[in-house]
Write a structure and sequence with these properties.
single chain; 331 residues; alpha/beta; Rossmann fold; Helix Hairpins; 3 domains; seven-stranded mixed beta sheet; 7 strands; RNA-binding
RNA sequence: GGCGCAGUGGCGAAGAGGAAACGCGGGAGUCUGCAAAACUUCUAUGCAGGGGUUCGAUUCCCCUCUGCGCCU
């Protein structure tokens, strides 16, 4: 029986470490669910925690592998962490605009591949949306983005976008809450979908079943904010030096700034420091704050998912307790 | 000792005689292809303390305290 283990929770709780530990114990492989670690050349800023010596490995089976994606934009493979494969990192270049929909498609391929080798896939990550896109039946997430349309819509102001959506699909508008109605990004996507549906191009394959994942166990790691912030701060301090070098390198490669990959926490502040706009201590402090907010938003996302079995990392022997829980579920 | 400037929420900071901007931080949320993003929302009955003036003062006047600068 195919089973899927998920380890989620806010940043700096030791998810990867736990994942590796469990992978060793239960003969598993890790599938990263992290919207920033998909980018190549961004290891330390995004906290991949994988040694730079561990290079990217293409999937076994070479050309014949199902993971050999025809689309050249992606490369699916793994890097090793303490001998355990970590999939779905280093998928695209930093200037690619990656998305949850694409992630879910790749994740399914990888998970199936791991199953086919009789191993336990362990999805480890802090990007709740990516996890959801993977484990819950989804609909519109598979409707691809329309670059040209977006470029046209992006120049419009909020009012026009709202008006446009109302005329295209009033139902959708009515279903949106105030927060989303004020969110240009959400409005643009809603318009995009509304137009696709209108043009009758939406053929909802029976993906729902295909994508349905039973037999899953969700483990969440958490801590009090006070402790979490301490851990975050420490981790940031540890990464500053390496991250600076990385940011510098990426900037030298000529990537421009308004890319999604460049919105990773810390990035803009380190860039400001390199550009002599702020001092290093200032940059570091801002990075920490940014990461605190990120952790909070992660928590508000995960708190809603009642399937998650939470473990406080301050609890004594929590690793053992998790092992026990996983063991009973898996065997 | 004398003179000058300043004292506003956890921090930075604007302000005007008549309901205390804004930024950061912190909290709570939204979410079906940019999600480490984007968006929503909450966070000072009070402006160093004490007296006045006034219908009304955080804003004007006086005193005290504190900080900074200058002068002997």
């Amino acid at each position: 029986m195919n089973k899927l283990l998920i380890i989620c929770g806010p940043t700096a709780t030791g998810k990867t470490e736990l994942g590796v530990h469990l992978a060793k114990k239960f003969d598993g492989e890790i599938v990263s669910a992290d919207s920033r670690q998909v980018y190549r050349g961004m290891d330390i800023v995004t906290g991949k925690d994988i040694s730079r010596n561990e290079k990217f490995n293409p999937p076994a089976g070479g050309q014949n592998s199902k993971l050999n994606i025809k689309n050249k934009k992606f490369s699916v493979g793994y890097r090793l962490k303490e001998g355990i494969p970590v999939w779905l990192v280093d998928i695209v270049e930093p200037d690619y605009i990656f998305s949850a929909g694409e992630y879910s498609i790749l994740a399914h391929k990888v998970i199936k591949d791991i199953w086919s080798r009789k191993k336990l896939p362990i999805v480890v990550g802090g990007t709740g949306f990516y996890i959801k896109a993977t484990i819950d039946p989804i609909e519109t997430v598979l409707i691809p983005s329309d670059k040209e349309l977006r470029e046209k819509l992006e120049v419009l102001d909020k009012k026009s976008l709202q008006q446009k959506l109302k005329t295209l699909n009033l139902q959708k508008w009515d279903s949106m809450n105030e927060s989303d109605r004020q969110n240009p990004r959400r409005l643009i996507r809603a318009i995009e979908i509304a137009m696709k549906i209108k043009n009758g191009k939406l053929k909802m394959e029976n993906d729902k079943e295909k994508f349905k994942m039973d037999k899953l166990l969700m483990i969440g790691l958490r801590a009090s904010y006070k402790l979490l912030y301490q851990r975050i701060d420490r981790r940031v301090e540890e990464r500053v030096e390496g991250a600076l070098a990385e940011v510098k390198e990426l900037l030298e490669q000529g990537y421009f700034e308004n890319l999604p990959s460049f919105t990773s926490t810390g990035f803009s502040h380190l860039k400001d420091f390199l550009g002599d706009k702020i001092s290093l201590p200032e940059a570091v402090q801002k990075w920490k704050y940014q990461e605190h907010g990120f952790a909070r938003r992660q928590m508000t996302w995960f708190k809603k998912d009642k399937r998650i079995a939470w473990f406080y990392i301050t609890e004594p022997n929590y690793t053992y307790k998790i092992e026990d829980t996983v063991g009973r579920w898996y065997t």
